[in-house]
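Margin note: ligand = pyridoxal-5'-phosphate.
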Amino acid sequence: MVSKFANRVKNLAPAAVYEILKATTEGKAIPFSAGNPGFEAIPHEKIANVAAKILAENPNTALQYGMTEGFAPLRGKITEFLQKNLNISAEKNRLLVTHGATQAIELCAKAFCNEGDVVITENPSFVGTLATFSSYGINVAGVEMEHDGMNLDKLQEEFDKHEKVSFVYVIPDFHNPTGWTTSLEKRKRLYEMCLAKGTLILEDDPYGMLRYDGEKIPTLKSMDTEGIVLYVGSFSKLISPGLRVGFLLANDIYMDKITAAKQVSDVYTAMINQMIINRFMEDYGLEAHINEICGIYREKLQVALDSLDEHLGDYISYVKPEGGLYVYCKLPEHIDSIEFFKAGIEAGVAVVYGSAFSVDPDEKSQYFRINFSSPSIEQLKRGIEILGEVMRKF
Ligand SMILES: Cc1ncc(COP(=O)(O)O)c(C=O)c1O
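Resulting structure:
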């Protein structure tokens, strides 16, 4: 039968992680698989409070159509927050509020890439983004991710191979899935290389504020004197993913087109959700809230690492993450990560096997990813103990 589908969705299928997520939301397994914030880290009562105030005091703005650029007071607060906490200047830049980081990334694909164009990503990388790029018919060239960031010699090889690269997509802080952080040296060199090549950088930073240890490293956007960095942020991991509020900050010269691209997608991001984030920042302060959740996650990470050392220490290795939501564990050579994953599910624990994040999904991976924010402390201890039992059977 002749396919009715367009080429752009031909290779699209529900990503493995989402299928695994389904199994865990059906209550079948301890969830080490999703990138969800912990239930206790989402400020439910405060959100209910501010939502009630908004609907009582300002129902028309909350429930009416809004501007594509976003709710002006929220844009102002995000701009201030970026300047104060990340030394990112809004000068010569413009901020667009989006439906999560996902939409900001999709808008960049839509605005900068024709079908067949090349984008470079770290390999492995965030599956959601890889699927977005696939849906635009983009050719993704993966460059090996190392403990201190992308292998830049291999990046140069890719630059030499392709005359035009639309952008380089990176997650410099507490990368998904590895939890690794790009060093300052590599950030500086990456920036210089992209500038020399005439390539944009898409910097995806949903985890940067979730640091539990070590020194903050400057974002690429904070070094961006030439306006080549498209900076993506999100409130999903900081306040609530259910509100679907993120943003894109990029050079003024790109923003008219990107804003028009959003307008044809969804006109604007739900006003009530933007107003909830805005009022939350106003009434409770985002920095104070981030401090609180960093305390929760610091403890959970320590429990995860202690349990991994106790039950899996003889078999796996990992680089201790200084923030974010993931630990990326390397299996012994003789164990296939998909087989390990399947045995985990059978025993009642869902991790994600490394190849689910590979640019080429047929690639072999020796890794599995654990999310430590979403399970409870008890689930972390019990789940990792079970993984130890599974491992011994191998
Ligand atoms: C690196 C990265 N970028 C973007 C997203 C999506 O974020 P949002 O919920 O804001 O769309 C995620 C979610 O896990 C992520 O890990």
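Residues 35, 100-102, 126, 128, 171, 176, 204, 206, 234, 236, 241, 246 surround pyridoxal-5'-phosphate (CB under 6 Å).
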